[in-house]
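re: ur question from yesterday

yeah so i grabbed the chain u mentioned. its 336 aa long if i counted rite. heres the sequnce exactly as i have it in my notes:
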Amino acid sequence: MLEDHTTTASSPTEWPTAYPQGYAVVDVETTGLARDDRIISAAVYRLDARGEVEDHWYTLVNPERDPGPVWIHGLTSDVLDGAPLFQDVAEEFAARLDGRVLVAHNAVFDWQMIAREYARAQREAPVRQRLCTIALSKELGLPLPNHKLESLAAHFGVVQQRAHHALDDARVLAEAFRPSLRAAAAGGVRLPLLECRPLTEWTDRPTPRIGQQASGPGGGFGGYGAYRPGTWRPSRKRPACPHPNPGRYEDGKRLKQGMRVAFSGDTSVERELLEDRAAEAGLHVATSLSRLTSLLVTNDPDSGTSKVVKARQFGTPVVDEAAFGQLLRDVEPADG
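ran it thru and got these structure tokens back, copy pasting raw so excuse formatting
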């Protein structure tokens, strides 16, 4: 159980009026990290405006496919076989999220997985904003050695009991988020809230005919049947950027119109929409990465994708989607 904290010197009586009225601290465990991966367990801690716990909820989810890295999450096909399908828990899950800001550690990942599951179920998750605790810890300037959940937990003296178990990870994050929220309120810090747009275009490709082989993480589907990745709208050709390239992005400074921006890996906001926003802000959306690229946007800077590898070779600056969303709010006009 979480301790019940009342107002103290560290929890200001003058609470920022612009802060949200409630939060849903979420953790999901999944079959993997790709677009076609599925949620296998989910947990939600509902918090009030000042971070106090109201209740919590947890469920297993049958992914209808191989469970993926069992050595990480510990959920085998046998355990998940009798679990409800996502569409069976979608309503209860939605009730836990409704009207609240979704809070997660690396929130872009949890949100994208949740949004895709709701799109598959032909529904929308009632989430309009999310808050990443990694972004919040950066805003607060916390002296963390890295951005792992265990480091954030250790900073606030929170003890992890079962890492990579959705319910315990959500509990740990709720306990770490409360003092983070109060520190932000005390310091007048603007919370790094980002918009959540539901996916509406997801469709599953036809199941392969008998004799065709389908594979996923781990090589098979554990008796769940064939599953194919979802299809997405094809990219459309955009007009050329009218501004000259002013060079590379510099950390701590503003983006400038004409900068060449490339994207790599999964994004929470649908890629096409994210690229549209960049183009509308006057940036050049590049499909490949070169020495002229001003910035690479990726949520997985340690991946081995060709763009990430080239960015390391060329010394191209890299930011995650959350940071890029903040930079898009204030893009410097081009010279002249």
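noticed a couple things. The chain has two domains: 22-195, 234-336. also The domain at 234-336 is CATH 3.40.50.10190 (Rossmann fold).
anyway ttyl
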